[in-house]
Amino acid sequence: MAVEVLLMNAVPGLGIEGDVVRVADGYARNYLFPNGLASEVTAGKKRQIEKKRIERLELMRKEQTAAEELAKKFESISCTIAVKTSEGGKMFGSVTAAQIIEKLAEQGITLERAQLKLDAPLHELGVFDVIVTLHPEVKPVLKVWIVEE
C-alpha cells in the first residue's frame, strides 16, 4: 500500500526537500520517518518546508552572485608555473592541482582542490585551460601557463 509523504530533505532517487511523493508504506514507516527524511503531509509541514526552501533559494542566489564576482577575476589573472626540464625540453614530473592552487593563493585567490577540474596532472609545457567550479552554474576557465624554469 502506498502513502503520500512530504520530503524534509533530499532523498536520492526520490526527490528534494518539499516534494510530495508516493512511497510504499513500509519504506515510509521503517526508513523515511525514523531518519527524519520525510513526514506525513500536513498544511503546517508544507508551510515549514516552503519557508526553508525560500531561505535556501535566497542563499543559493547570494552564493551565485559572489561566485560570478570571483569569476570576473579569473578573466584578468594568469597562473604561470615554472618547471625544470631536460635538455630536450621534456618536463621533469608534472603540474598538479595542488601546485595551481598554491600559485593562485599567492595572488589572493583561495580555492579547494575539488573546485579545479583537472582530469590528469599536466606533463607538458604550454598553455592549458582548467575549468574552475565556483558554483554549479558558474564555471570560469583559468589559463595555466607551464614554462621552463
Describe this entry's structure for a reader:
It is a single chain. This protein is of the alpha+beta class and about 150 residues long. It has 3 helices and 7 strands. The protein starts with a strand and ends with a strand.
Main beta sheet strand tally, sense and closure? 4 strands, mixed
Overall form: elongated
- The first-to-last residue Cα distance is 70 Å
- Strands of the biggest beta sheet: in what spatial order? 4-7-6-5
Question: What is the topology?
Answer:
Blueprint: E1 2-7, E2 20-24, H1 25-32, E3 38-40, H2 43-76, E4 79-83, H3 97-106, E5 116-117, E6 126-132, E7 141-148
Parallel strand pairs: 4-7
Antiparallel strand pairs: 1-2, 1-3, 5-6, 6-7
Provide a compact summary of the structure.
35% of the residues lie in helices and 24% in strands. With 149 residues, it is an alpha+beta fold.
Offer a few descriptive terms.
149 residues, alpha+beta, four-stranded mixed beta sheet, three-stranded antiparallel beta sheet, 3 helices, 7 strands, elongated
